[in-house]
Automatic annotation (TrEMBL):
Entry protein name: Regulator of G-protein signaling 7
Domain DEP residues, every copy: 34-110
Annotated ranges, domain RGS: 311-427
GO biological process: G protein-coupled receptor signaling pathway; intracellular signal transduction; negative regulation of signal transduction; regulation of G protein-coupled receptor signaling pathway
One Gene Ontology CC term in the entry: plasma membrane
Classification via CDD domains: DEP_RGS7-like, GGL, RGS_R7-like
Length: 482
């Protein structure tokens, strides 16, 4: 029986954790070597003696010698990593897990509290620890504010188990009284450092934070059996590879050129690079910018009209541009295209109960034989629409809308609109807002420039006295402003 148990223990792999923890634990065990490790002894500080502690510069010196490190900065970084993972901790500062290259004192953590030695502690163990501290000396073992909130929350969530938690806490307090004073101080500090790593204060990061998506495979473990691939999987993979062959591949240099061209084109309209005209309303409290750039305006600005010529998407995304484009198509007797496209766009955002009625209404107005606003689409697209009409939904006319938008509006109507007299007149009559000076308000209706102050020095006045008083007045206003 024992042989079978030994064989099972040998078969179970010991690499259920990242390999970095094996390296860190090996380094920490070398540090704890009584002869060649970091010197650990009782340190005297003021009038007290601190047992089982070592100094920060002893640790840094040992790391530099053991790892052949030339600069102490690298050794301090390694020491900080070991401290944040809970292999040792500061003695006098339980809030921050950092190592300094000075005479500050640190203490090694007991191996049973090392990370990945056992399962992650649960809320019940944390509740026992907090309850145990409430039963001890309040001056030495008082709870922090975040620990009091955690204790109250755990008392509510574990209400059915709280009697058992309280009994275990009382039993642990009773057993701790039987220990020696030095051992009690060391064990208490080690337990507090352990929970400082696993339950850090608010705003502090934990190096042992669990990933939201756990890893399914660990090095050294046998891989889980993979599902056999079926014919459907292979057909799907073949279709994916064929689609990949038809995709347009672009070089990185060409992509960078495209990004650069896009940036140069739209930089003029980016308020982070170009100051908006006439002024930034968030800074100057002037609403002229909002009025000139309202969704629907009678006379758009010249800069806004120029943006319509960049692409059809810019024109269609602007309500004023869409209105002007619709008026132009009405003059050209082809406004049914834009009306159909807007109707399909409205259909996509309609209530589900109204979709069947709207589908039939759009079909009768734009696609049925002899419709009042019949659009011109090819037979293949019409056939696809008829198939979709059997089961009406909000995407029934997407193929027809794409045909109208791409072939009729974007490639035919939009270029004619940009070359038309209507667009030229809009560009010529566009508003050109002038940039306004930045002014500062002093709590009244009077506006005064930041540095401009006018001094009216008469011929009979004391120039020096008046200039001095004005400078004092100006200095006082500046101090009041800031």
């Amino acid at each position: 029986m024992e042989a079978s148990n030994n064989q099972q223990q040998k078969k179970e792999p010991s690499v259920h954790r990242p390999c970095a923890f094996d390296k860190m634990e090996g380094l920490v065990r070398e540090m704890q070597d009584p002869e060649n490790g970091v010197p650990v002894r009782s340190q005297k500080q003021f009038l007290t003696s601190i047992p089982s502690a070592f100094m920060g510069y002893d640790l840094i010196e040992w790391l530099m010698e053991r790892l052949s490190i030339e600069e102490s900065v690298e050794a301090v970084h390694i020491a900080n990593q070991l401290c944040q993972y809970g292999y040792f901790f500061p003695v006098n500062d339980s809030k921050t897990l950092t190592v300094r290259d000075d005479s500050s004192l640190y203490r090694f953590q007991t191996p049973c509290y090392w990370p990945w030695q056992h399962k992650i502690p649960d809320n019940m163990e944390y509740a026992i620890y907090l309850a145990k501290r409430t039963l001890r000396n309040k001056q030495r073992h008082a709870l922090e504010d975040y620990e009091i909130e955690a204790l109250n929350s755990l008392r509510r969530n574990l209400q059915n188990k709280w009697d058992m938690i309280q009994l275990q806490a009382e039993e642990q307090v009773r057993l701790s009284k039987e220990r020696k004073k030095g051992d009690k101080i060391v064990s208490d500090s080690q337990e507090r450092a352990f929970w400082r790593v696993y339950r850090p204060p608010p705003g502090c990061l934990s190096s042992l934070e669990v990933t939201p998506v756990p890893t399914r495979f660990h090095p050294g473990l046998s891989r889980p059996p993979s599902r056999k691939r079926t014919i459907t999987d292979l057909q799907r993979e073949v279709a994916l590879l064929k689609n990949s062959l038809t995709r347009t591949r672009i070089k990185v240099s060409a992509a960078i050129e495209n990004f650069n061209s896009y940036f140069e084109t739209y930089m003029e309209y980016d308020p982070m690079f170009v100051q908006p005209q006439p002024s930034n309303p968030w800074i100057t409290d002037d609403q002229t910018f909002w009025q000139l750039n309202s969704p629907l305006v009678e006379i758009p600005t010249e800069k806004r009209v120029k943006r319509w010529a960049l692409s059809m998407e810019e024109l269609m995304s602007d309500p004023t541009g869409l209105q002007e484009f619709t008026q132009y198509l009405r003059k050209e007797y082809s406004h049914e295209n834009i009306r159909f496209w807007l109707a399909v766009k409205d259909l996509r955002h309609s209530f589900q109960a109204k979709i069947p009625d709207k589908v039939n209404e759009i079909f009768r107005e734009f696609l049925a034989p002899g419709a009042p606003c019949e659009i011109n689409i090819d037979g293949k697209t019409m056939e696809k629409v008829h198939q979709e009409m059997k089961n009406p939904n909000r995407f029934t006319f997407d193929s027809a809308a794409e045909h109208v938008y791409t072939l009729l509006l974007k490639k035919d109507c939009y270029p004619r609109f940009i070359r038309s007299d209507q667009y030229r007149n809009l560009l010529a009559s566009g508003v050109q807002p002038s940039q306004k000076k930045m002014v500062f308000f002093r709590g009244t209706s009077e506006k005064e420039s930041f540095f401009d102050f006018d001094f009216d020095l008469g011929p009979n006045s004391d120039n020096e006295h008046v200039a001095t008083s004005c400078c004092n007045r100006r200095r006082g206003r500046r101090e009041w402003r800031w």
